[in-house]
Write a structure and sequence with these properties.
It comes from Spongiactinospora gelatinilytica. By secondary structure, this protein is α/β, with parallel strands linked by helices. The chain contains five helices and five strands; from the N terminus they run E-H-E-H-E-H-E-H-H-E. It has a five-stranded parallel sheet, with helices on both faces.
């Protein structure tokens, strides 16, 4: 039985499939879902400092959009408790941290075909190799 399901979610098709699976698992097990929507601010050279404000605006917009996407899931499935965070770090690092208190971690897979499917994406790979709880890698249906 799970108490906390952590899911990586950025609104993409593969992360929507992961979110759907996470909510299904939480509903079936009476668990909560914790959504991680990480957005890392890239490091730019000193001569690009003039663009820092613009970049922070873009990240702020993404953080707001992530909150709105999660709010939509809460409206869709009010019986499941869904919490969220939008850390400003690489998604892999954010998910590994969140997984410290998770019973299950769910990530999406892009499913890029037979050859590419032999190699998972960097986030899925990092999560599989650095967390101690079960990990579900989900493809869009």
């Amino acid at each position: 039985e799970y108490g906390r399901v952590v899911v990586g979610y950025d609104g993409s098709e593969h992360s929507r499939a992961a979110m759907e699976y996470a909510v299904e698992q939480a509903r079936a097990r009476g668990a909560q879902v914790h959504v991680v929507s990480a957005c890392q601010i890239p490091v730019y050279p000193p001569y690009a400092v003039a663009y820092q404000g613009l970049l922070e605006d873009v990240v702020g917009d993404e953080v707001r959009a992530a909150g709105e996407r999660v709010a939509e899931w809460r409206r869709r499935d009010p019986d499941v408790i869904i919490t969220d965070e939008q850390p400003r770090e690489h998604p892999s690092a954010a998910l590994v941290k969140a997984a410290e208190s998770a019973d299950l971690v769910v990530v999406g897979s892009r499913g890029r075909g037979a050859l590419a499917s032999a190699v998972l994406g960097s986030v899925s790979h990092a999560v599989l190799h650095h967390v101690k709880c079960p990990v579900a890698v989900v493809r869009p249906r």
